[in-house]
Design brief:
Largest sheet: 6 strands, antiparallel
Strand content: 25-35%
Helix content: 25-40%
Number of helices: 4
Distance between the termini: 50 Å
Number of strands: 8
Oligomer: single chain
Number of domains: 1
Length: 238
């Protein structure tokens, strides 16, 4: 490879890398002081989006024929916005009286797993590291994840150990959370929505997977559930 071509490829890869990192990590582009919130950063108006539009582009399913049948390849439609999905998720989080995560610069690290099972009670698990204080917040609504959210039925807080926090962070790293694909890629009906958000003083990201059953992303979310005092059967995990 000649020197000029090598230099061009290096610049191209570096530019792509910086573009991806800048988009996925920079909280500055999402901060919005005009959003009306209360003292806990919970929206005061129904209909407020809980996610920046850039985090939820529309996704098309491209069916590719293989020797063993077909596989599905998701294609993100750049410059689009999946308002149906964002409105659905936001309605559930608003009913939970959860704070927004993207609109302010904070001095803590936060991850929030929102679990919406079509015919079961919506749940949310939020873990925070406040300068060495590790806290888990979790709530359950009395409605259904695919229908009306209902009202808060369970709302609890639990102090965690540093070891528990580091165990969760390792699962997040294994999942490569900060580089996961954006948009909702779903090829099934009913099931469950697994939405995971991450927030640090410098970056924010939100990803969603439909009904995962294995992998580091799945394990990270399941671990948050295990840190609570909830007991779920194997069938209730999907």
């Amino acid at each position: 490879m000649n020197k000029t071509l090598r230099h061009t490829l290096t610049i191209g890869i570096l530019t792509l890398f910086l573009t991806q990192i800048g988009f996925s990590q920079s909280i500055d582009k999402f901060v919005d002081s005009t959003i009306k919130v209360d003292s806990l950063n919970v929206p005061t108006e129904y209909g407020q989006s809980y996610f920046p539009k850039e985090m939820f582009p529309e996704v098309e399913q491209n069916w590719i024929k293989t020797k063993k049948g077909f596989r599905v390849e998701p294609i993100v439609k750049e410059g689009t916005y999946d308002s149906f999905i964002v409105d659905w998720y936001s309605e559930q989080l608003y009913a939970m009286k959860e704070p927004l995560l993207f609109n302010r610069i904070v001095d803590k690290e936060v991850y929030r797993f929102t679990w919406l099972r079509t015919f079961d009670k919506p749940m949310v698990f939020r873990i925070e590291n406040r300068k060495g204080d590790y806290i888990l917040y979790y709530k359950i609504l009395d409605g259904k994840g695919g229908y009306e959210p209902g009202r808060i039925e369970v709302e609890k807080t639990k102090n965690l150990t540093k070891k528990e926090w580091l165990t969760f962070k390792k699962l997040i790293e294994n999942a490569d959370f900060w580089n996961m694909s954006l948009g909702r890629n779903s090829i099934g009906l009913d099931g469950s929505e697994w939405i995971l958000e991450g927030l640090t003083p410098t970056k924010y990201r939100a990803v969603t997977i439909w009904s995962p059953t294995e992998g580091s992303f799945y394990e990270a979310c399941i671990y948050l559930i295990s840190l609570s005092d909830l007991t779920l059967t194997e069938n209730e995990r999907y």
